[in-house]
């Protein structure tokens, strides 16, 4: 089997496992929808306030939903022993890890990408900001999986690593949150967002290049 075939096989395997556990797969999406829809109940039905808060509410909710789903990235493989088989594979471990991250994004990030514009309309976000919202989600949600994979790899061997995972990952998510929500906010105000989009694109490319290697090294340390 070539490296490309192994990469695609990892993605296919993880997608099949995810669809067998549909309840777990739906949890992040349901959490995202619930958090966004609860905000109007908490702050009141004030259109101007909700419209001003919409970019931050959407992005904080997406970040927390992604964080909720991170622990499943390597946990089941660690529990059933297949993670050790992955480490013993003759193929490049960072590439196989990237395959698992891609599958994780397809299961968790892609549904958020599809549902977020509908929830943004619910909060009163102007239609002119919708393309920017969609683009920021497309660029930034993969970063949530890529960055989070390092934290998951470091804590996968711990029984109760959820709190430690949050402490490790949340500070790294802050730049993504700042630039993504700022881009949507500026688009809603009719201002240019080229700088924010370019920064997010550069961050995504850096994450694609830099995160698989430390994630693979952290998995080796956690398993050994």
Give a brief outline of the structure.
It is built from ten helices and no strands.
Overview of this protein structure:
The chain has 224 residues and is an all-alpha fold. It has one domain (3-223). The protein is built from 10 helices and no strands. It has helices at residues 3-20, 22-43, 47-70, 75-80, 82-87, 93-122, 130-155, 162-188, 194-210, 212-223. α3 (47-70) runs parallel beside α7 (130-155), α6 packs across α10 (212-223) and α7 packs parallel to α9 (194-210). The longest helix has 30 residues, at 93-122. It is elongated, with a radius of gyration of 18 Å. The two termini are 26 Å apart. The model has no long low-confidence stretch (mean pLDDT 86). It comes from Methylomonas rapida. Its main location: membrane. Keywords: Cell inner membrane, Cell membrane, Cytochrome c-type biogenesis, Membrane, Transmembrane, Transmembrane helix, Transport.
